[in-house]
Amino acid sequence: MTRPVTARVPAKVNVQLAVGGLRPDGFHDLANVFLAVGLHDEVTATPADTLRITVEGADAGQVPLDHTNLAARAAVALAERHGTAPAVHLHIAKDIPVAGGMAGGSADAAGALLACDALWGTKATREELLDICADLGSDIPFSLVGGAALGRGRGELLTPLETGGTFHWVFAVADGGLSTPAVYRECDRLREASGAGAGVADVPDPEPSPALLDALRTGDATALAAAVSNDLQPAALSLRPALAATLRAGADAGALASLVSGSGPTCAFLAKDTEAAQAVAGALAASGTCRTVRITSGPAPGARLVDA
Ligand SMILES: C[C@@](CO)(OP(=O)(O)O)[C@H](O)COP(=O)(O)OP(=O)(O)OC[C@H]1O[C@@H](n2ccc(N)nc2=O)[C@H](O)[C@@H]1O
Ligand SMILES: Nc1ncnc2c1ncn2[C@@H]1O[C@H](COP(=O)(O)OP(=O)(O)O)[C@@H](O)[C@H]1O
């Protein structure tokens, strides 16, 4: 009997998300500056007769258990490449909010790939794993790599970024999720409605902010706070106006920066240090503007195998 294999994978926040025009293939070119943070899902792979998914955690009921689960799709993709059957039980211990703009499904896909590769002895190269990740979803390569990175293209073409320190974050988790495609569609709709147009010819090419990359490199939280931006934030706020009160509650409590995490609806608050993070978290919890509050820090390492 082969021993189960467990992979641990971090969530992410986008400290910059610059969104270009709508491409003919339905995606948007990005300058996506990812920072991995210390909320994790764990994926455990155990030999089984057929592919089976189970999930535990507060949001477990919102995760599909069929072949559409991103962890299942990752196992199938790896098995197909190596001419084996995806005969595995994948158990997901879910701590990353579902449909929250923190790449939880992507984390599960990256974790399933690593765990299945170890369980089956497929010995896929790093390049092969990154290739499978990019095929499955734009954010999945970053879940594998972790740390901090700039994502170009639709977010899958990664350049690792240097970070000079630890950044302290508070996350306000909302009731219910937001659909990523719906938020991109709303971003396009708002651009059209403003008269500027939403196509690649209408929107400037997205570029990373030099001030933001500098702040990451030097570990300067105040400078990072001044440089964070998210082009999807107006769209997330348009679809979920109540998020404005969440952002305001964190800002009023002294957060250095308040922004929607990716496509939302999770809101992210950058704090000066752990004490400031505690104060922001306390105020958010008392504000009644979110379901739950999490304190963590980044950068966090990417997907890795752990002892079960
Ligand atoms: C917005 C971001 C920011 O990191 O993540 P979340 O905040 O949702 O976690 C990502 O761009 C989400 O990446 P991911 O969730 O992997 O998206 P995918 O599965 O590749 O694509 C889902 C859908 O989102 C839209 N999409 C995604 C990426 C991109 N660069 N342009 C897009 O327009 C497309 O409509 C696509 O069909
Ligand atoms: N393993 C998984 N965990 C979470 N969601 C998943 C998973 N597999 C597929 N999904 C689907 O992907 C959608 C997006 O989930 P998630 O990746 O958590 O959010 P986001 O794209 O906002 O970061 C969910 O609504 C869910 O239906």
Automatic annotation (TrEMBL):
Residue spans crossing the bilayer: none
Keyword annotations of the record: ATP-binding, Isoprene biosynthesis, Kinase, Nucleotide-binding, Transferase
Domain GHMP kinase N-terminal: 69-147
Record flagged with keyword Phosphoprotein: no
SUPFAM superfamilies in alphabetical order: GHMP Kinase, C-terminal domain (SSF55060), Ribosomal protein S5 domain 2-like (SSF54211)
Enzymatic reactions: 4-CDP-2-C-methyl-D-erythritol + ATP = 4-CDP-2-C-methyl-D-erythritol 2-phosphate + ADP + H(+)
EC code(s) of this entry: 2.7.1.148
Annotated pathway: Isoprenoid biosynthesis; isopentenyl diphosphate biosynthesis via DXP pathway; isopentenyl diphosphate from 1-deoxy-D-xylulose 5-phosphate: step 3/6
Start and end residues of each GHMP kinase C-terminal domain: 213-287
Classification via InterPro entries: GHMP_kinase_C_dom, GHMP_kinase_C_sf, GHMP_kinase_N_dom, IspE, Ribosomal_Su5_D2-typ_SF, Ribsml_uS5_D2-typ_fold_subgr
Binding site for ATP: P97, V98, A99, G100, G101, M102, A103, G104, G105, S106, A107
Active site (record annotation): K12, D139
Coiled coil: none
GO biological process: isopentenyl diphosphate biosynthetic process, methylerythritol 4-phosphate pathway; terpenoid biosynthetic process
Domain of life: Bacteria
GO molecular function: 4-(cytidine 5'-diphospho)-2-C-methyl-D-erythritol kinase activity; ATP binding
HAMAP family according to UniProt: IspE
Stated role: Catalyzes the phosphorylation of the position 2 hydroxy group of 4-diphosphocytidyl-2C-methyl-D-erythritol.
The family this protein is said to belong to: Belongs to the GHMP kinase family. IspE subfamily.
NCBIfam families: ispE, PRK03188.1
UniProt protein name: 4-diphosphocytidyl-2-C-methyl-D-erythritol kinase
Organism: Streptomyces antimycoticus
